[in-house]
Structure formats: C-alpha cells, structure tokens
Amino acid sequence: MATRGNSTNIIVGAAQLFTANDTLDEAAIPAFDGGTRYADTLEADTVNFRNVGYTMNGLELVFQPDFGEVQVDQVLDVAKLYKQGMQVNLNTAFAEATLENLLFSLAAQAGDLTGTANTAKVLDLSAGDIGECPVERGLVAVGPGTGDCDPSDPIERVYVAYRALSIENVTVSAKRDEPTMFEVSFRLLPEDVSGSYGKIIDRALSYDNTAS
Predict the structure, then answer these.
(1) Is the C-alpha dihedral spanning 173, 177, 178, 179 positive or negative?
(2) Measured between alpha carbons, how far is 127 from 125 in angstroms, rounded to an integer?
(3) Contact 25, 203 (CB under 8 A)
(4) 15 to each of 27, 154, 164, 193, how far by Cα in Å?
(5) What is the pTM assigned to this prediction?
(6) What pLDDT, in 10s, does the model give residues 27-56?
(7) Where are the domains of the chain?
(8) From CA 6, how far away is CA 3, in angstroms rounded?
(9) 150 pLDDT tier (thresholds 50, 70, 90)
(10) Quick check: 210 pLDDT over 60?
(11) CA separation for the pair 89, 87 (Å, rounded)
(12) Span 65-85, average pLDDT
C-alpha cells in the first residue's frame, strides 16, 4: 500500500533572523559545529552578526521569475517561454522596535547610529548624498527543518542571503492599540563570484560539517 505522505516533511515554526555587518560570501559564513544549534553559533559571533530579536508574521521568501514569450502564426497561445529576469525578496516584520533594527530597515549607514544604552542612542535620519551607495548587508535565518520534532534526529533549516537591501517604505508608529513594528522587504542580490543569491540548508545537528 502506498504511503499517504511523510509528516516529518511538514515544517511549522518561526525562524530566528540575524543580520551581518556586511555582505556575505562562502568564506564569511560561520562553520557548523556538530551538536550546536546554528542560532547559538551566530549568537556567539557578536562581531559579525546581530540577532534582530522577535519578528511578526514569520519569514517569507518570494521568487519572481520574469518570462518572455515567443508567438508564432500557427499557434494561438505562445509557442515558447524563455527566462529573461529574476527577482528574489525576503519579507518580515521586526517586532522589537530598537534603533538598531530601524537602522537595518532603512538601509542606513552604520555611522548614523551613535551613543550607547547607558547614555542616549541617537539615529540620525540622514537624507544621504547624491551618488551615495545603498547599504547592503547579509542575512541568515535559522528555523525548524524536516524531522525537527524528532529529538533523536533533529534537523534545522538555515537560510543564507549574501546581499540584502531594504527597498520598500518603512513606517514608524506610536499607537495606543498597536505595537510599534518595522515591516520590511529586502531585495536579494546575487553574489559577484558565483551569481548565487544564497542558499537554503537542511542541517542535521548531530553532523559536524561546514556551511558550504
């Protein structure tokens, strides 16, 4: 009798999102450590990565291919489709309304945020200069993977984006009946050497390997 399916391949659960201080490539991704959750590995690397904290409405990767059409006289529909473009977006909402998350959401320069928590943090809402390059940063998210509910064989899914740039409007609010959140849409760009946007890895915690 054929099986109906495999319930361990159903993935449910939120991911933890980390931002890199700079863009990423293969060499910049921390190696996996057998038996250690990758979120803990990234959390320990405070120099290069920062946990954005709570998010709302999860994490959404949107792939938007663009196809051109070839029409011929003898066919009423198109005779051939060819791929002429590609766009990938990552959407989420930051539930922790910190100035660090707002800086990230605005794709602002790191120098626009000054001060410390012990004194006063100040985010300069700079208009920028003509010809100023937009700020790209890498993203890494760690969530449940296939079979993750099995304590004897835990698997986590790691999402890596090499170059991410915030491109949509960002709203900052202070309302009586709603929390302040930053809804953000990141446009992912391909890495220069490989032409890859990043990768998605299903990783067994018990296996000690590298991120590549």
Answers:
(1) positive
(2) 7
(3) no
(4) 23, 15, 17, 28
(5) 0.88
(6) 999 999 988 999 999 999 999 999 999 999
(7) 14-115+133-204
(8) 8
(9) low
(10) no
(11) 7
(12) 95
- Token pair of 173 as six digits: 């609010």
Question: What mean pLDDT, rounded, does the chain reach?
Answer: 89
Contact 172, 121 (CB under 8 A): no
Nearest to 111 by CA among 122, 101, 120: 122
Three state DSSP letters for the chain: CCCCCCHHHCCCCCCEEEEECCCCCHHHCCCCCCCCCHHHHHHHCCCCEEECCCEEEEEEEEEEEEEEEECCCCCCCCCEEEEEEEEEEEEEEECCCCHHHHHHHCCCCHHHEECCCCCCCEECCCCCCCCCCCCCEEEEEEEECCCCCCCCCCEEEEEEEEEEEECCCCCCCCCCCCCCCEEEEEEEECCCCCCCCEEEEEEECCCCCCCC
Q: How many CA atoms lie within 13 A of 42 on its CB side?
A: 25
- pLDDT > 90? residue 78: yes
Structural tokens at position 91: 């959407």
Whether pLDDT at 199 is above 80:
yes
> Mind listing the pLDDT tens digit for each residue in 155-197?
899 999 999 999 888 989 898 898 999 999 999 999 999 999 9
